[in-house]
Structures are given as structure tokens and as C-alpha cells.
Automatic annotation (TrEMBL):
Pfam families: ABC_tran, TOBE_2. SUPFAM superfamilies: MOP-like (SSF50331), P-loop containing nucleoside triphosphate hydrolases (SSF52540). Residues 3-230 form the ABC transporter domain. This is ABC transporter ATP-binding protein. It comes from the Bacteria. Gene3D superfamilies: P-loop containing nucleotide triphosphate hydrolases. SMART domains: AAA. Keywords: ATP-binding, Nucleotide-binding, Transport. The keyword Metal-binding does not apply. InterPro entries: AAA+_ATPase, ABC_SmlMolc_Importer, ABC_transporter-like_ATP-bd, ABC_transporter-like_CS, Mo/tungstate-bd_C_term_dom, P-loop_NTPase, Transp-assoc_OB_typ2. The keyword Transport applies. One of its GO terms (molecular function) is ATP binding.
Amino acid sequence: MFLNVSGIGKKFGGKWVLKDINFSQERFRKIAIAGETGSGKSTLLKIIAGLEQPDAGIAYLEGKKVPGPHDTLIPGHPGIAYLSQHFELRNNYRVEELLSYANQLSEEDANTLFAVCRIDHLVKRKVDQLSGGEKQRIALARLLIGSPKLLLLDEPFSNMDPIHKNLLKSVLDDIGERLQITCILTSHDPMDTLSWADEIIVMRAGNVVQEGGPPEIYHHPVNEYVAGLFGNYNLLTHDVIQHISKEKRFTGTAKRTFIRPEQLELTRDATSPITIRRQSFQGMYTMLELRAGSATIIAKASGPAFKNGENVGVSLSAAYQFHQIG
Ligand SMILES: Nc1ncnc2c1ncn2[C@@H]1O[C@H](COP(=O)(O)OP(=O)(O)OP(=O)(O)O)[C@@H](O)[C@H]1O
């Protein structure tokens, strides 16, 4: 196994902020660690990088223990690069000075690295002439000069507009494909991770609450915390479900049925007791709030908008797979 995280625990001020974290990563498999602020993502990443001492457990890279800062003179691991969300670049330097170590690379490798990080056009600039996103790509390039095997990125998408997020996603894809570097990143906005990750680890209060591929996590969250991290959802009672499901595949249970808004299909139906209460235009689609007796249903419409107060028939899309949350 490329990376093996085994029983990692961490205490701050007598309180466990990470509790028995276990997971493994195959080479080139992209892992995202998602979770609300304070759930322990950064601390876990720093422990994997060998920059924070764990109070329990061990991380192994290619079968060898990653030493913590108490075990070595110079904290960190030569095969692991860690980009903090609070990285710093010295202001009065030119980019080419910051990247002077790149001279150790062949010209071809240095050019590939600069192209992958989309910084070819920036090398003559001074650091204070760069935007936040450009600085981040320089910081990334500086780390990658050392040819790490594993790259750890803490909140790389925070404070970024959608255009720069997409640019960074392409850079990360190229880092994996062209530079053959395995990557783990954290995000408190898990929507950023769905399109990038092969696997998502969801954390809450120092625990892993769910681990799986993006479709699994998105469509089959284990609880409301995971459901809510990844966008809007409905939790519908048995009565409402019986009404909107034409098939009788739902059995009576205290649990509620989990449905993402886009898994519901709407039709104009004057005989339906369900009405449109509110709607908000989101560009690619319109988000609708429906009234079904005392229940509220959230749905999406991409075609022509309905009118508020209009009666609509609601049914489950053909692809919907039954999922309940307690
Ligand atoms: N050096 C420290 N001393 C004391 N407590 C700390 C320290 N570092 C982190 N913590 C606490 O440990 C918990 C986990 O913090 P951590 O930064 O790992 O969470 P996070 O999920 O990365 O949050 P964010 O998304 O805000 O970065 C928090 O309660 C935090 O206050």
C-alpha cells in the first residue's frame, strides 16, 4: 500500500481532536478529506506530513513509518510535500529567484513543471505583483521541485472564484498525470471535492463518519451531517413518499427517505395536491420549494419555470435508488 494511516489520534489541551483515524491510499488515487471547520482535517494532514506529532497511531508511506517532529531533527518527510492554507512567499523576491532550485531539474523537467503549474508567464514578476491564485501556484511549484511522491494540500480552494478553482483543478489533474504525484486535499466546502476525488473521507469532531466514492457519498450519505455538507436534500416521511412514488416499493418504517432535489421529476398536474410555494432562479436551474400537506419538498427544474401556487405532480426519477436515514 502506498499510504497507510493506522490508528492516528491527537490530543490538544487534554481533548482528543483526532480519534483512531484509519485509511489507506493506493498510488495515484485522489483522496479528499471533507468536514466542517474544526473537524480535524488540517491536523490529520500535518500528522501525515510528519509536521505534527500524533498521540496515537502511525502513518506509513510505502511501508515505512513517517517520523513525527519529535523523532527527527528536521520535521517533515522528503517524499511528502505539504501546502498549508497559510503558505507564505517572501515579497521582495522575483518568482525565478524563489524557484531557483528548479535549476537542479533538467530544462525539460523544469519547463514541464512550470507548464503544469501554469506559471511560465510569471517567472520574471515580483511576488507582490501576483494575485492570490498565482502565488498559490508558485508555492505549489516550489514544493514540486523536490519531486515528492505525495502532495498534501490544505484547503487549496478556499477564497477562490469559480474560474480560478477550475484552473487549480486542471493543475491538480496534471500534477497527478504528468508528474505522477499522488495527492490528498482537504476542503470545508465538499462541493469542490466531488468532481476531483476518487474517494472522499468525511470527518466530524475528530472522527471519520463516512468514506466512499463521490456518487456513494452524495447519494447515500450515512446521516444528515454528510447529506447537508454535499448540498440540498429532502428527508421525506413514509406518507409523502407513498404519495409521490408510483411503485409501492417503500415499506412502513420510522426512517425517512433521502432524496436529492434533482431526483424528483415535476409535471403540470391541476389535480395534484402538491403546490409550488417559492422558487429561486440559480442560472442553470431553478430551485423550487413545494408544499405537500404540512411537508416541504425541495426540487429542481431546468425547463420553463412554474408559477408560484401552481399544482404539480411529483415523481421519483427512474434512476433513483432508495435510501433511508434514521
Ligand atoms: N495547535 C493547536 N492547539 C490547540 N488546539 C488546536 C491546535 N490546532 C488545532 N486545534 C484544535 O483541533 C481541532 C481540529 O482543528 P483542525 O485545524 O485540524 O480542523 P480543520 O477541520 O482543519 O478546520 P478548518 O477547516 O477550520 O481548517 C479544532 O478544535 C482546533 O481548535
